[in-house]
Amino acid sequence: MSHANQFKEFGRALVITNDQETRQLVEALLVSEGYGTTGCADTRRIEPSIGEPPPAVIVVDAAVEPDSPLILCREIRRLPGCDYIPLLLLSDDSGEQATERAHEANVTILIPKPIDEAALRKHIQSLGDTGRTLSGMRALRTPRTDVLKSMPDAFFVAGQDGLLRQYLGGANEDRVLNPDELEGQMIKDVWPADVAALVMQNIRRVLKTRDGHAFEIELSRQTLCNSYEIRLLVQGRDRVLMVIRNTTEAGCNIGRNRDRTSSDTLTGLTTRDVFMADFATLLSDAKLRERGVAIFCIDIDRFTRINATLGRAIGDTVLKVTAQRIERCLRRYDQLTHIDDSDNSSLTRIRGDEFVLVLADIESREDVVTVASRVRSAFAAPVAIEGHQLKITPSIGISLYPLDGNNPHDLLKKARVALDEAKVMSVDGREFYSNTMKFRALESLDVKNELRWAIEKDQLELHFLPRIDLQSGHVAGLEALLRWMHPLRGSVPLAELIPLAEATGLIFPIGEWVLATACQQANEWYINDLEVPAVSINLSQQEFMRNDLAALISRALEDTGLPASQLELEITEAMLMRNRQADATLRELSEIGVGIVLDDFGQGRSSIAHLTSLPIKAIKIDRVFIDGVRAPGEKQAICSAMIAMSRELGISVIAEGVESELQVEFLRERGCDAVQGFLYTEPLHPDAVPAFLKACEEVAGESKVIDLNTVRKQIEFKTGS
Questions:
Q1: Which pTM does this prediction carry?
Q2: Which domains does the chain carry?
Q3: 362-379: per-residue pLDDT in tens?
């Protein structure tokens, strides 16, 4: 009989055995301890038996697969949702070597057969909330005491009855605590009555609330008196892990009393070396206690620009303010335990403007998101320095222990990879590490280094994609598209180039090169009396947020002699919505006289009504909607509505990604002003642009009725493309 619908306090347990007697015994114990049960006797049916949600506990009888029980356990671990579920293996072979092999196969507990009911019950009770929170993410293995010998803290497992059941190691040299003498003793027998009462009160509190808790005690022996912090973490329904730390100045290796040599002279935060040592200790603690840890890499957007334009002194002040604002997000009431309770111990400035924050005892991803959001919100107000109102925005990359690694070096490295992704791809300025980021980072590592030389080695080029006026057939605009002509890889795709440039900080020099080159080329066409339309360049998110963007544009126009009316700047709708200073920036650019084109319209959340208050010259309907107009449906209706509303408001409409005559006819009928796409031509090398312009003029002049199919064919003929 299965008990899947009964006693669900602790969830469902799956029992995998083909022996009826074993199954009845195990299920009876599980049910009596608050679990529902289901059984599986056929190893080919395990995956369907896992179900949704996955079981809270899995019990495997080695006899069900006598030749390869550990292979079966590994296969179970690979099933969806079974990575960290407590896995109990019942086996006739339970010696030390067998136990090691079982742990290597990610078995949580190896239980010898024949089954000792009392022992099995204790094992089941020890599981507690394992499998449902991050506290149970790793297999519960008996820690080896030699790992803890050098630890400054003492680790005990204590029961709700006050018995110090097991001393796990640590604090060996503490002659007041004498931890090696305490195992097997009752708390009331080894410590003063008032201390013992306080400890027992907190043990009962922790077991009732299921939340960790820390408090302080004092112990003395002969002429010595030490202060201790005791942390209690739930280990099961009737036991806690007790971590005892000596906080007395003479005995505190990682604590509150840091000397000046251990602090960053600029921010007052912990130095890198001290922080990394603390980080390693924290991870050892987390491994023992089966807890989650989050690592934040926090970087200030555009900090190098602040240093370059406003000076080092202001840059240093920004770093101090950044440290203070992050610290304010980490008060004691957060219920998130840090390396210790000192204000700075979980935060350091590891280099330049890069800060690293470590949070321990993380129960869920939501905890991490909450802190990340709090850090971002802490920078909502501008930083006022010497008359400057600086808008500071941090980007955050996050890695998690044990999901992303098990040592400080790997976790920090992966948090940095996530930080690169956050600076380029994230809407809300934070990203969790994922394996896809790892592969992208590995593939692009060499390319990043080579990109630094691309400008000096003349590997960058601009090609120009024409925009065709749907009424006249003339070229209505030329969009400058960046190309990296790599000597070995050939043309590097723009979708790869721009994220690389943003991630490496090279987007600014590359963007300045694009601006200067496009203006210079456009001016050459202009002074040669060609009927050349405005040339447009695309701004990246980081470029659009530059404080000196308007000055940069003005200088480029002045240096090349290009009239401002011959230049357009394209920004995406998403960029417009993310930048709080966007309205002011657009008005500054409009005062210069350049045109503003809103790219990828329809993908963001801006409203047409909002656009009327901004100096927008034209919108580009995103190609997603253009692709959808090939057949009647929602995309056609949306596209038609955007064109109609824009025209009513006096805003020109451009459709991008046009690749078929059917799309052209639909758009022309709806009143779209212009289109661009590979239906007419691929992006043109600058040398090919004059011939293309001339071909369009001649074809348009031959007929009063513009047949765009004929235009395209004539262009191909006249330009030889």
A1: 0.44
A2: 12-132 (3.40.50.2300), 153-251 (3.30.450.20), 260-433 (3.30.70.270), 454-719 (3.20.20.450)
A3: 877 888 888 888 888 888
